[in-house]
Amino acid sequence: MKKDEELLYHLVQEINDAIYSMDSHFIKLHQNLVTDDLSPKQIILLDFIEKNSQVTIGQIASYLNITSSAVGQLVSKLEEQQYVTRRINPENRREIFVSLDTSGFKYFEREEEIKRFIISKYYSKLELSELVQLKEVIQKLNQIVIKEGTIDALNDHHLKKGEL
């Protein structure tokens, strides 16, 4: 049984190394193609808005796990550069909606171009059946991770800080 565990460990390590190497390459490529000077938190905020069309300051605060005041500062900086726009909810004047603005839409148009470039340069070299299989395996692993939950897994194996 110990031999199987070692084999599993080494296989997973090789997978993780390959993914890390590939992600590092894609990040470097992405950085060379993107002209926007955005912080990681600003990018996460823009992604959240783009996926949800219109969000409130409270929703952003909850999603980013920061205060509404901190969200206000983050949104103000993005608003100055026309990445986002704010407007008061006409039905609840204490609520502020945040949505993408001109620079925000341009940012995501450029992101789409970069994705298509990466797909044509790299993923297109794989067979369609390989891509389908890759997608299925990654989705299956993702479902296992979601089902098991990180905190539950740590508690189940008694792996707490200092016990590793």
TrEMBL record:
PANTHER family: TRANSCRIPTIONAL REGULATOR, MARR, TRANSCRIPTIONAL REPRESSOR OF EMRAB OPERON. This is MarR family winged helix-turn-helix transcriptional regulator. Residues 5-143 form the HTH marR-type domain. Keywords: DNA-binding, Transcription, Transcription regulation. Pfam families: MarR_2 (PF12802). Transmembrane segments: none annotated. The lineage of its organism: Bacteria, Bacillati, Bacillota, Bacilli, Bacillales. SUPFAM superfamilies: Winged helix' DNA-binding domain (SSF46785). It comes from Lysinibacillus xylanilyticus.
